[in-house]
Amino acid sequence: FLEFEFRHNKNNKKNNKKDSHNKNDRPDGRLRYANNSNYKNDVMIRKEVHLTPAVMRELRKTIEDSEILKEDDNHWPAPDRVGRQELEVVCGKEHISFTTSKIGSLAVVQASKDPEGLRVFYYLVQDLKCFVFSLIGLHFRIKPV
Description:
The protein is of the alpha+beta class. The chain has three helices and five strands, in the order βββαββαα. The protein has a three-stranded antiparallel sheet with strand order 1-2-3, with helices on one face. Strands 4-5 form a two-stranded antiparallel ribbon. The protein is globular, with a radius of gyration of 17 Å. The N and C termini lie far apart (35 Å).
């Protein structure tokens, strides 16, 4: 499986030591990444980085521009033995979750009962994967001077 989570808490006070032990108090711009392919009994890969406000704004813009918050997964293919994909978006006061089968190609999208909505989901997931892999790759490969 592949999982990533972005957290951005606008109300978080960095110097508020009183609440620093609260589990729900998350640092601004945290990206957590986990990947377990089970290829040759490989171990779980876990990474965590903190992102700048500019990067978080770009992420939010990508999600909002996709218009995924207007979609509904009721007519998307249900998860099956091949796999499942899930996407949960909390953006301001809006909170939405999607679940569908693993999408291997645009042919699957076109054959669905809701090709327009599933296309939005498919491309957003591709964009988010590319975004995460780029950030993780840059963060862990660049050596300080």
